[in-house]
Design goal:
The chain has 374 residues and is an alpha/beta fold. The protein has 15 helices and 13 strands.
Length: 374
C-alpha cells in the first residue's frame, strides 16, 4: 500500500500531514505501508517529515500570484509545466494507490499528474476560503475534507467536515513541566504569544512596543520565529526593566514536545489565525485573541478568525486596530472576568475536532481497502 502526500511546505500544510500519517500507522501498523511526500524543496518540511518515516521527493514548484509580477511568467511558462512533467514520471514509476493533497502551490503538479494517471486524489482544505490550488484540484478530487462548516466553493456532495488535523500529542501538556522547561514563576497570568510556524514580525514589534507594561501584569512566553529571534531578544534586553526580565521567555521556535507544555501553561493565547493555530488552540480549550495576517491570500486568516470568534471562543483584533491601549484594555477586561474565560474555554472545546486526523486516516484506509478487495 503506497500513499503519496503533497502540500505547500509551510507548517500549516505539513503538520496536518504528520498528524494524518501517524493515525494511519496507528490504525494500519503492517509493514507493507509506504508513505511518500512530494513537494517543493524546503528544509523545515524535510526535517519534520524525515522523522515520520516519509520517503521525500522534491519537485519544482511554481506560484500564480493574483497581481502583476514578472515571476508569474517564469512560473506559468516554465516552473509549473516542468513540475507537472517531473511529477508525472515520479508517479508513473512510484504508482501510489492514492494521492492526498493539502494544497498550496507545491501540490498542484502532483495532483494534476495523478489526474492524468487516473490515481485517486483526496484533498483537505484548512481555511474558510480555499486557495487557488485546492479550488482547482477539487474539480477532480474523489473526496474533499474541510475544517470549517461554511467553507466556500466546494461541492457539498463530495465534502466531509472533519476539522483541521492536529497532532494529538499537543494535547498532552503539563503545567508543572512547562514551569520547569521555561523557568516560569507562575506568579502572574501567562500569555502565550505566537505568530504561526514562521513567526510574525508585526506582532513581535508590537510586543516590544508595550514590553514593560505587559510584563508588569503578565508572564509571557513569546514565540518569535527563528528568523527574528536574535533581533527580538536583543531589543528586549535593551528595553526591559531588569526586575521584570524573569517574566519574559522568548523562543524562536518550540518543537512539539515543548509546544504542548506551553499550550497547557497559557491562560490566554495571542496568535495569528492560520487554521492550524486555531484548531490547536481550540483543542487545548484556551481562550484566545486572534490577529489575522492582513496580507493572507483571499483574506483567509480574517475569515478563519471571525468564523471561530462567532462561537464565543476568541476575540479578533485586526492588525490595523492593534494599538497599545485597545489591546491592553481588552486583555485586562477578559482576564478579570473569569466567568467569561470559562465560557470561552468551553466554546473552544465545543468547536474543536481533536479526532480530525483519525477520521481522515480511516476514510483513506477504508477507500484503499475497498479498492484492493474489488
Amino acid at each position: 500500500m503506497k500513499i503519496l502526500f503533497t502540500g505547500g511546505g509551510t507548517g500549516g500544510h505539513v503538520y496536518p500531514l504528520v498528524a494524518i500519517a501517524r493515525e494511519i500507522r496507528r490504525i494500519y501498523p503492517k509493514k507493507d505501508l509506504t508513505l511518500y511526500y512530494a513537494g517543493p524543496k524546503d528544509e523545515f518540511a524535510t526535517a519534520l517529515l524525515s522523522h515520520e518515516d516519509f520517503i521525500i521527493k522534491t519537485i519544482v514548484s511554481g506560484k500564480i500570484r493574483r497581481y502583476f509580477d514578472w515571476r508569474n511568467f517564469v512560473d506559468i511558462l516554465f516552473k509549473i509545466p516542468f513540475g507537472i512533467i517531473q511529477s508525472f514520471f515520479l508517479l508513473l514509476f512510484m504508482r501510489p494507490d492514492l494521492v492526498f493533497t493539502k494544497g498550496g502551490s507545491g501540490s498542484i503538479a502532483a495532483a494534476y499528474a495523478a489526474r492524468i494517471l487516473r490515481i485517486p486524489v483526496f484533498l483537505h482544505e484548512s481555511d474558510v476560503v480555499p486557495g487557488l490550488s485546492n479550488q482547482t484540484v477539487a474539480k477532480w478530487a474523489k473526496k474533499i475534507f474541510v475544517s470549517f462548516p461554511k467553507t466556500e466553493y466546494f461541492d457539498p456532495k463530495r465534502t466531509i467536515l472533519t476539522g483541521n488535523p492536529i497532532r494529538k500529542e499537543l494535547l498532552e501538556g503539563d503545567k508543572e513541566k512547562a514551569a520547569e522547561l521555561f523557568n516560569l514563576t507562575l506568579s502572574k497570568p501567562i500569555l502565550l504569544i505566537m505568530g504561526g510556524s514562521q513567526g510574525a514580525e508585526a506582532i513581535n514589534d508590537f510586543v516590544l512596543s508595550i514590553f514593560n507594561h505587559l510584563l508588569k501584569e503578565y508572564e509571557v512566553i513569546h514565540i518569535t520565529g527563528n528568523k527574528d529571534s536574535k533581533e527580538v531578544a536583543a531589543e528586549a534586553y535593551v528595553v526591559e526593566e531588569k526586575d521584570l526580565e524573569k517574566y519574559y521567555h522568548e523562543f524562536g521556535f518550540l518543537n512539539e514536545e515543548k509546544m504542548k507544555h506551553a499550550y497547557k501553561a497559557a491562560d490566554l493565547i495571542i496568535s495569528r489565525s492560520g487554521s492550524g493555530s486555531v484548531f490547536e488552540i481550540a483543542a487545548n480549550g484556551k481562550p484566545s485573541v486572534l490577529i489575522p495576517l492582513p496580507m493572507a491570500a483571499n483574506d483567509h486568516q480574517a475569515k478563519n478568525a471571525f468564523a471561530y470568534a462567532q462561537t464565543g471562543a476568541a476575540l479578533v483584533i485586526e492588525q490595523q486596530n492593534l494599538t497599545p491601549n485597545f489591546f491592553i484594555e481588552n486583555v485586562q477586561l477578559l482576564l478579570l472576568n473569569q466567568e467569561r474565560v470559562k465560557e470561552m474555554q468551553q466554546a473552544a472545546l465545543d468547536f474543536a475536532k481533536p479526532l480530525a486526523a483519525r477520521g481522515i486516516a480511516r476514510e483513506i484506509l477504508e477507500f484503499l481497502m475497498l479498492d484492493f478487495r474489488s
